[in-house]
Specification:
With about 325 residues, the protein is an alpha/beta fold. Helices cover about 30% and strands about 15% of the residues. The chain is built from eleven helices and 14 strands. The chain has helices at about 5-15, 35-45, 60-65, 75-80, 100, 115-125, 145-150, 190-200, 235-240, 275-290, 305-315; strands spanning about 1-5, 20, 30, 55, 85-90, 105-110, 130, 160, 170-175, 180-185, 230, 245-250, 265, 295. The strands form three sheets. It has an eight-stranded mixed β-sheet, with helices on both faces. A four-stranded parallel β-sheet has the order 11-14-12-13, sandwiched between helices. Helix 1 crosses helix 6 (about 115-125). The protein is globular and about 60 Å long. The structure holds threonylcarbamoyladenylate and magnesium ion.
Length: about 325
Amino acid sequence: MIGNEISKAITILTQNEVVAIPTETVYGLAANALNEASVQAIFTIKKRPRTSPLIVHTYTLSQLLTFVKEIPPIGERLAKAFWPGPLTLLLEKKAIIPDIVTANRSTVAVRIPNHPLTLELLSKLPFPLAAPSANLFGYISPTTAEHVDEQLGDKIPYILDGGSSQRGLESTIIGFKEKKPVIYRLGSITQEEISSVIGFVPYLPPQKIKKGAELAPGRTLQHYSPHTPILLGNLTDLYQANKVHRLTALCFDRPLKEIPLNDQFILSPQKSLKEAAKNLFAALYYLDKKEADYIIAPLFPEEGLGRVINERLKRASATNAFS
Ligand code: TXA
Ligand code: MG
């Protein structure tokens, strides 16, 4: 059921059940982060492997300090600059966080999301919320309540509707390696923005994972994938090379004249990368429903949000996580 009643979300979460919640990045599938059984339900509903840890959402630094050991000074500077917002920090956890949340790691991923409904919800709950994106594992992340409903509606009691996610791409994840900050996942806050606050921070790109090797969390190559295969490159060239097939197109600012308009999605007529990021996952949902042979999609200049969009598109187009 979709609705916007915070009191209803509180009742359900307090009974240790799950609720889908809006955030500025994507919708999350939330449960009491301090209760093992509630968190188990998230993994079951999403069909998510237990090796993949969750992000814990909180609303103040004081609540955060009840479940992490400390925030290093660099983490504090990042928190000041970007919270509430799409930044996730990996911090040493206290024992109160069940091991299932972190897949047995000593660190827990945390963030203060920037969405009024969810901040109000968090402020009225006596516990933080563990929440991965509210999609089936491996499929496209949801940026509207309707996306969540399509994938998980029959499995969850309530979807808190907070409208379309304003950022549209997941949070940027920063951890510490020998006390130095490292970007583990590119996200809504760009590497350039992070570096402008604390100096250059490197990004560790997902490595191709060998068959049989332990899956590093969140770093499988295939992710965010529609069912329809995606071909990436110059749209006109892709069209010419593949026109014997039925094609749909993801376009930046204007459509291709060779393909019917309703088989295309224009990310940003104004050529704004921010708008393109916000619309990216909704575009993939829309085009996937057309059930074409292929979705053709462009790559963006490799900087700022363009790089983040490219990373999501490349992962969405990787056909085999183990190849
Ligand atoms: O924007 C977001 O971050 C959204 C909203 C709902 O907050 N959440 C989200 O969650 O994208 P999810 O589960 O789809 O992605 C979380 C990522 C995964 O790649 C996971 O492996 C990584 O965070 N992660 C979580 N805890 C970790 C830890 N302790 N160490 C390393 N990676 C961790
Ligand atoms: Mg996800």
